[in-house]
Fold GNAT family N-acetyltransferase.
Amino acid sequence: MDIRSPNDSDLPALLALEEASFRSDRISRRSFRRWLRHRDCVFRIAVDDTKDSTLLGYALVTLRRGTRLARLYSLAVDSAARGRGIAQALLQSVEQAAREAGAIYMRLEVAENNLGAISLYEKLGYSQFGLYEDYYEDHASALRMEKRIRPYQPSGDNRQLPWLPQTTAFTCGPAALMMAMAGLPGGHYQPSPEEEIELWREATTVFMTSGHGGCHPLGLALAGQRRGFRAEVWVNIEGPLFLDGVRDENKKRVMRIAHDSFVRQCGAAGIEVNYSDIDQDELTRRFSAGANILILISTYRMDSMKAPHWVTLSGFDDTCLYVHDPDMGDTSPRALREAPRNPLDCQHLPITRDSFAAMSRFGSSRLRAVVVLESLS
């Protein structure tokens, strides 16, 4: 058996193996072609080097840019070749390649009735950390399993925080705020699509460089406090925010008016605004004390777009900070066919502390903004 990267000549055999291995949720010809050229994946095949390089199996792993997370997207072994340790060899090969690409965690989903695969994953060190109901096209549920492919000594508080996707391209702030509020004690807060838009209306800066306005940290804090939570803001710039790249002077005028209004409202509401950086030690201390935290990042390391984006802190350890990202990426029909992003790809994303320090600054002004939310009970 030889394990190597596939090429275009392997496509017919890959399609035949896919057809024979899965009754639903199959990878299409177009998707296989895309994965053969995609830079953010690890793709390995096992071939029989004694039988004209007959395809025995494949493993495909996706890598989430800007994070240290890898995900086993698909694994298949020819039924005639099972029992030879091919799945284990493939999995160990892609783990090594993912590790070399910088990944710290490997995650996967497996049908809860696939006892053979579950046994293999457990043997190789994977453990269940959740259940995804009605996951497959046939409505079967999937176990969520995870393995740290780089050893560590854990520390910190990795609490259970609900994950919510943003339903528009411009409501990352409201989605992050809804996650934070729904994850605090009390259980009285109920997110909804209507609430997402209402939060955006309350917190928007009105304009951004293009498209709809994003959300101001003071606006998000005000929206959270109006809903019965204690809010606090850390921002390292005292003047109007998000003016970088806005050329229209009338847009700048309106954004300054909105900013000044948020400042006055926070003063009237008694919301503490700290005009300074908040370091990672303080972030993790506040998180451990029970607060949920919204953090503004630049998406450049994730998608090269240099857009401001709100995420919610979901945990930490000595190496990484973990975030819930509300952005499901491009959800157009074509994008979903060619490279669907799974909700699991957006939850508890591990970002190394040095990378996080760079990501949590936006624009030429190096804006840093954090909203700390606490329960009043």
